[in-house]
Design goal:
Length: 111
């Protein structure tokens, strides 16, 4: 059984919705980046978009590989699709690592 990134992200979202809130939630409009004047997407939306794009590029690479195996695709297209998928996945992993590192730093701060 294979678990995809979108499956993991949606399961994580469902588990967050099932938990009782620890603190009152802020309205969605109040979650903006400090550098922008407003209307910017939240961090969660950005991560969701990034994971979706990475998943799409992985599907495209898989489709290109299947076409090549069937003899209907071009090897250059396969290599290009796999390179794009690898870059997207590396980006998602790097963002995840930075978020986990920031969380660990916050947890080690003295109050």
């Amino acid at each position: 059984m294979s678990i995809g990134m979108l499956d993991a992200a949606s399961a994580y979202g469902r588990s967050l919705n099932a938990l009782p809130p620890m603190m009152p939630s802020l309205p969605e409009e109040s979650v903006v980046s400090p550098a922008s004047g407003g209307g910017a997407p939240s961090f969660g939306t950005m991560v969701e978009t990034m994971v979706g794009e990475a998943s799409n590029s992985l599907r495209e690479a898989e489709t290109a590989s299947a076409k090549q195996v069937a003899g209907k695709g071009d090897l250059v297209d396969v290599v290009t699709a796999i390179g794009a998928a690898e870059t997207a996945l590396d980006t998602v992993v790097a963002v995840r690592d930075r978020v986990v590192g920031a969380y660990n730093e916050i947890m080690h701060m003295q109050i």
